[in-house]
Amino acid sequence: MPWRAALMPAPVLFMLGHQSAFNRGVASVGGSRIQEHRYVDVGRYVDRALPRNAVVFCLQHGGSIRYYSGRLTVRTDQFDDRGLASAFTWLRAHGYRPFVVLDDWELPGRRPATWRLLARRNPPDGVSVYDPSGDGQAAVDPPTTIEPATDRDCSAPRPLFVR
Known about the structure:
six-stranded mixed beta sheet, about 35% helix
């Protein structure tokens, strides 16, 4: 009977050790740490590349873009195409610059041909950053590649920009 009491903590200790390794990213399932770091990478890109008066239309990346860049965010799923175009026009008239960030799974039926691709994080976790300026011109330079970060740092939040 005393040996049972001695073995009782073994499964708990095993699970704690496994969870600790998982949290360090050593044993992450399917590279989830790297894949989920896309939120940090895209947020940092928006912070360094888009103007302070940017308003970013997005769905999946709304919270992380606001956290890591301090830019205002608006959910794309709240607008049909006509409403989205009206929102872009209103924002420009009031001194803001609209941009759109979409994961690959959000793209079908959402990206008009006039949007310029500014940056891209490639699959398996593809994310695109667009300028919907409506000028219809293709970007002169190729889109910037948003590289996966090599660090694990999830920086402090940026202050929210409000005009």
